[in-house]
Amino acid sequence: MSGALLVVGDVVTDVVARHLGPLASGTDTAAVIRTLPGGAGANVACWAARWGCPDVRLLGRVGADSAAWHERELTESGVQPHLAVDPEAPTGTVICLVDTGASAERTFLTDSGASLRLDPGDWSDELLDGVLRLHLSGYLLFSEPSRALATVVLEAARARGVPVSLDPASAGFLTGLGVDRFLAFAEGVDVLLPSRDEAYLLTGLPDPADAAAKLSRHVPLVVTKQGARGALVAASGAIAARIPAAPATPRDTTGAGDAFTGAFLAALLAGAEPKEAATEGCEAGAMAVGTVGGRPLRIVR
Fold first, then answer.
1. pTM above the 0.70 mark?
2. Any idea which fold 4-11+39-90+113-289 has?
3. By CB distance 3.0 to 4.6 Å, which of 110, 182, 205, 212 could disulfide with 224?
């Protein structure tokens, strides 16, 4: 593995609240609360490094309030941070409400802050030097400045022949952007990594396999993340592989899809075929749901 992975995306501060019962309106609900580094783009980068990719770079934007902390956390996770410091906006913050029931499902309250203020002025073509894969967080498409940056980055990668992957990131924000606008951008990428809900939203097809197959007529490789149902790999309008989920005991599903993506991309860079890489992704996703927060534990694999 001699080439680098460059991730362009969001860096945020997660406030993870694992509530110990149903939310009680108008009064207190007991919870265990932790403040952790997060952001879909940053999480993907950290999981790729955790999964053995020796050269992972991240371009993101943070506020001056926590820039040093985020840079240190990324560096200690094996990621080379390239963080633009916003002079006006604070670092984005996400409140993650996590149900402590069997599913450990999470709900996000998102203040994107500086993360969606990335713009073309934050980009340098030198970031692509030595890069063999580029990954874009779909959150970039949800504001005008970062959408303009994503277009510049995509064009620069295509000019160098660097394959590009894209994660839609958020079904809620995707609805606001519009399916047609998203798909128009996605036609320029090589790998699409939607969740089951995002695949449904992008195609209108209720069956995940049908949705993945349809998307693979627009993007060469589609890998649909299905959580406890594993993953689907689709190419050329057909399902190429069905990957079972790895065994897991959920504590917090925050970042499970990011873990899948990071491990999947690290495996591709190491020479794995998509089916093998998706199996690695499922393993990372299972590991992620067993820990609190969206980042991996700092243990050498």
1. yes
2. UDP-N-acetylmuramoyl-L-alanine:D-glutamate ligase (3.40.1190)
3. 212
